[in-house]
Design a protein that fits this description.
Length: about 260
């Protein structure tokens, strides 16, 4: 299999995310060993806080709300940061609705964990909305980035949930000046912001023979909209993860040789 992978000219892969904490135990490590690949990781985006002065211009009063919807740990951190900067005391009666159990447990960094006030879904916003619908009398606050999925607001509005959107942090391009972008045979993206960062850092970037892989429909669309060719996409029915999709691609292309 290693010889076939080299025939495909896939030797160096760049993943536009931070390296896993334990790379040796990650699926990327297995993929690298299986096909003799060099896999690098580099964050293409970074999170910057929205200053309280700028936040005030949104005219959103955090204490006018009785519940908060958290879609990530970033949202949790910046919600409590903003409350501190504005010198607001979040009432004990505040309810928290989290995208996942992991996000819910992360709340312990800021509040005493009480299950009666903290609710969570299973990494799926639609499933979380089903829980929110059981608490329709609440007035919700949705802390988010300046770049966020429009589908979140759409789902809340379709279900007639009373909520306010509060942009508390920004997703911006990371500095990729040390990245030799043309030295990679494959680039892997996980968000439209990653594509934006690619062209901000490398305005004259040409894909050439480089393979582009994208996770999620919005990322895939961003790849195509930017004029790049999408070679590998995930998740699919047979490849729910990015590493599985890459494995499938290499095996399929190897059989053509």
């Amino acid at each position: 299999m290693e010889r076939k992978a080299r025939k495909l000219n896939i030797k160096n892969i760049l993943v536009s995310q931070p390296q896993p904490a334990d790379f040796a135990k990650s699926p990327y490590s297995d993929l690298a060993k299986k096909y003799n690949l060099d896999i690098d990781f580099h964050k293409f985006i970074k999170i910057e806080e929205v200053p309280s002065k700028e936040f005030r211009q949104q005219k959103v009063n955090m204490l006018d709300h009785t519940a908060v919807i958290f879609t990530s740990r970033n949202a949790v951190d910046h919600f409590f940061r903003m409350a501190k900067e504005l010198r607001l005391e979040i009432p004990d009666a505040m309810k928290y609705f989290c995208i996942s159990e992991a996000t819910a447990f992360y709340l312990q960094k800021y509040v005493q964990y009480r299950k009666r006030k903290i609710f969570y879904g299973k990494q799926n916003f639609a499933q979380l909305v089903d829980i929110i619908k059981k608490h329709k009398d609440e007035k919700y606050l949705l802390p988010c980035s300046d770049i966020h999925k429009a589908s979140l607001s759409k789902l809340l509005e379709e279900n007639k949930i009373v909520y306010s959107k509060a942009i508390m942090y920004k997703t911006v391009a990371a500095n990729l000046s040390k990245v030799r972008i043309n030295s990679y045979d494959m680039l892997i993206f996980f968000s439209p912001s990653g594509i934006t960062s690619l062209f901000k850092n490398f305005p004259k970037y040409k894909q050439g023979d480089t393979l582009i892989a994208a996770f999620g429909p919005t990322t895939s669309k961003a790849v195509k909209d930017s004029g790049l060719q999408l070679n590998i996409k995930a998740p699919t029915k047979t490849a729910p993860s990015m590493t599985m999709a890459i494995d499938e691609y290499i095996q399929k292309e190897s059989k053509k040789k």
